[in-house]
User: Fold these one by one.
Assistant:
Number 1:
Amino acid sequence: MNEIDNTKQPGASQGKQVVAALNQSDLRSIFHLLVGKPDSTQQQFARRVHVNVHAICDLHERMKDKLANHRIEGLVATVDVSFEDKTTIEFGTWVEFEAFRWTGPKETTDVRLRWEFLVAVEGYEVPQRHAVTVKLSPKMKPFEFMRAVFSKDPSEIDSIEMEAVPIICRVDFVNHVLSKELLAIVDEWVQGLPQPYVVNSWFSWLENHHGITLNFLRYSSPLIAGIAAYMSLEFLFASSTSLGAPISLGDSLIISKWALASILIVYLIDKASSVISHKAYESIQKYGSYRMFQLTNGDTSGAQKLQARNNKQVRNFLLNLSISLIINIIGGVVVFYGWST
């Protein structure tokens, strides 16, 4: 049997020519491009903002202007938009996103923007892949929360706080300087977005200083009621000429009735104040809902519903505050009258 000489086969000869055409630096660059894992950095933005189609297009233009200053090849921009009915539209190109009609009734829940491109990096023979991902999500989905809680991976639990913020930007990079520039672009964009009215309203101040208001609603009425009860006792015996005189049977009966009535009134006012403060706290906590996205007609309708809900919470708070003030005014009148006499 004759031995086969592999060196004389055409395929082997062509393979050697391909390998010989690539030096070690080229092979390392191609290997890193295909299977290498780039570094990544991310930044969270807790600022509550409104986002519309114009704002998203503005961020895209900012990205293009920044990348125009570098040697970029093959820029691909994609957009994924998710809605409350659990449907998602994936725009493979930016032209498709700009041409889409945003007149539907669906309400937007998540938007994910992604830019992928190749950039010439010093020290590499071939351009290196970079990617920028911006995730817009006003709230964490229950499924994602439960997955993180029951996950055996500690990193999933640590990501709960990260996923709860409305805006996250992640940059996968080889060029560290470029990654910082891209993060700065997103940061400047976020700071320029308009904020919802609920952020700057007077009611939002109560959310950050609710302790003083709730303590007033909880304890002011019982305190004034107790003082008023004491003043009413002095008023009942204001005509007494001698404090050291023995207490008559009639006076004892009056004091017993006063004590029973005072205890009952203070107890009822204390319970009422507890309910009032709790209702006021619920109103403060429920206030502040807003719709981050203003893309579709459904988003506009949803924003109007949330505004009506916020207005209802303000009315509930003012109602409970008014009831507390009326109780305090009545008790204050009794205290003032008893003190003046």
Number 2:
Amino acid sequence: MSTSFELLGAQGGRDENGIASVTVPYFAQTIDEVFSVGAATYLGLPQVSRTFQANEDGTFTVQVTYDGGDSSSMPGREKPTYSLNSSFEEEPIEAHPNINDIVTKYGGTWKDGRVTFPSKMPDEKKDTGGLSNAGTTGDSEQKPNPMCGVEKYKKLSVQWSVTYAATVIPGSVLAAVGRVISNPPGSAPQVAGRTKWLVMPPTASKRGNVAEITENYFLLDEGTATEIYKLGSIS
């Protein structure tokens, strides 16, 4: 006959997506009971995991975790939560959207698809006539070129995520992946000149009797060729 029973000290909560988690301590008389103590469900939530620890008297305390929810507690896709992840990433200077202007101003030269810049700024007087250069001493009066040695630049990377809970993973969650849309769900951030969002692969994890789903959207560069990705929409 089992001598296990629930102990005081249950704790838990429910997040903004409606997914509840409760951890309940149980007493187990022997090691043989540590994987069997505890109700199959607690407050309507199914078991998802457990841990146990031996006590000094040879008994065990078992922590059983219950996760999940029901449709009445989950706002779902209609009221998801949003998150923004932004950072600076290094990109080759050749990929800069204003590379042609930069090359012209700082005297860059192209070779085998790469741009290099001289140590000194181009002589701005050399095209204004012979008299304008009178008295100069060549490179000694030219300003240092701030682009000399520059091979990369910092580009703003932006990802917008939409998270919600559902009783099942929607069959349409992959339908728009790899396509470009103009307006992801929610009040996505605006970056001047960049209006194309690439639908990225979503993630989903099982939380008891429900699934937590995150849809991801990546803000493309201003000059991304329209032929690279297909236009799409989300439902």
Number 3:
Amino acid sequence: MSNRDYAKAQIDALPDNAIEKVLEFISFQKYRLGLYDNDTDYLTSVPGMADKIKAGLATPITDCVSLSDVWPDV
């Protein structure tokens, strides 16, 4: 059995709630290998990322954490 076939069989054996993490890892590997044309293609390939970005854009600035609270040394 090839590594590819083994990986496919292991994915089939995983519960549905673990598949999202596998997809995130696959997206990251494709990004790392330069298989996406741009960052937008990569980000939209991550499950749920587009919704998180849209939610962040819809959040009022007053509800956001300040940059200095996130990175005090910047």
Number 4:
Amino acid sequence: MAKRLISLRELDGIEGLIEHHLKLQERIEALDAEAAQFDVPAQDALELSYKANRLKNDLAATLEHLLARVGR
């Protein structure tokens, strides 16, 4: 029987990270667009950017771990 390279739980986790990151990016873009209308800095955009970067780093680490496991 072939060994599964990635579990459904891991795949769901990766999908969740990607979806959350996309939602954050959309929110950041919306905040920037709203702020640009009034020529003011976007409130909370910096904090959301930090969260998005952490998610991107988590996703990259997860994918690197899976790649290393598959390479064995």
